[in-house]
Amino acid sequence: MGEDEESIGQQVDQSIILHDLGKGILAGLVATGVAAILIVLKDVAGIVPEFNLIGILGTMVGSPGPVGGWIVFFAAGIALGLSFAVLDARVEIHPGTDEPVRGALFGVLIWLALMLTLMPGYGGGIFGMTFGIGAPITMLVINVVHGFLSGLVYGKLNPENLSDA
To answer: What is the domain partition of the chain in residue ranges?
Structure first.
C-alpha cells in the first residue's frame, strides 16, 4: 500500500470515528433527557425523597441550587453516550448482542462504579446505603434505562463498526 492510499485510509478511519462519536453524543443526549424525566417524575411522586441525585451533584460542584446539578447530570449523560460509542465499536460482548442490550450492560457497569466511588465520596457510603435501599435501586434504574436508550438510539443511527473498517 502506498503512502497516498495509507493516508486516505487514515482519513476514512478518522471520519468514521468522528461520525460514530457524533452519534454517541446524540444518543447520550436523548437518553439523558429521558433519564431527567424519570428523575423529575420520581421527585414529583415523592419516591425515595431522601435521595436527591440532582441536589447531590449540585453540592459536589458547589452549586447552591439545582442548576449546577442538572448541568453536571446532562454533561455526564452525554459523556456516557460518547463513551458507549467508543466502547461499542471496539468491545465485543457476545456475537449477536445488539446495542440496547450492550447499553443496558454498560449502564449496570456505570452504576456499579458510581456506587463504589461517587456515593462513598459524597458520604453516602458504599451503594449509597446512608440514603436507604431506594438510592441504589433508583440509580440502577436510571443507569440501566440510560444505557439501554443510549444503545437503542445509537443502534438506530446505524453506526459503523470500526473493527470491520
So the answer is: 3-164
Q: Which residues contact 111 (CB under 8 A, 6 or more apart)?
A: 136, 139, 140, 143, 144
Which helix H or strand E contains 111, and what residues bound it? helix 99-116
pLDDT of the residue at 163 = 44
What one-letter code names the amino acid at 97? Answer: T
pLDDT < 70 positions in the chain: 1-17, 91-97, 158-165
CA–CA distance, 19 with 13 (Å, rounded to integer): 10
DSSP run (H or E) holding 159:
none
Do 46 and 103 form a contact (C-beta atoms < 8 A)?
A: no
pLDDT on residue 161 = 46
| pTM of this structure | 0.81
Q: What is the DSSP string of 8-32?
A: HHHHHHHHHHHHHHHHHHHHHHHHH
